[in-house]
Specification:
By secondary structure, this protein is mostly helical. The chain is 76% helix and 0% strand. The radius of gyration is 19 Å and the shape is rod-shaped.
């Protein structure tokens, strides 16, 4: 059935891109958080404590 194949392709396409978009938004938010946090010793802090993720 060509119609079913097209529907399967479109659903997988949008699912994959939406998941990728969500991951990119999370990484951009984390980068902006680390950039805007008033942490002058970010590199030193990051080498000591790698836990810079805030959920």
């Amino acid at each position: 059935m060509p119609q079913l194949d097209l529907l399967w392709f479109l659903s997988n396409f949008f699912l994959a891109w939406s998941l990728l978009f969500i991951v990119i938004i999370i990484f951009i938010n984390q980068y902006n958080y680390n950039l805007n946090s008033n942490n002058n010793n970010f590199i030193n802090n990051n080498s000591i404590n790698n836990n810079t993720w805030t959920w």
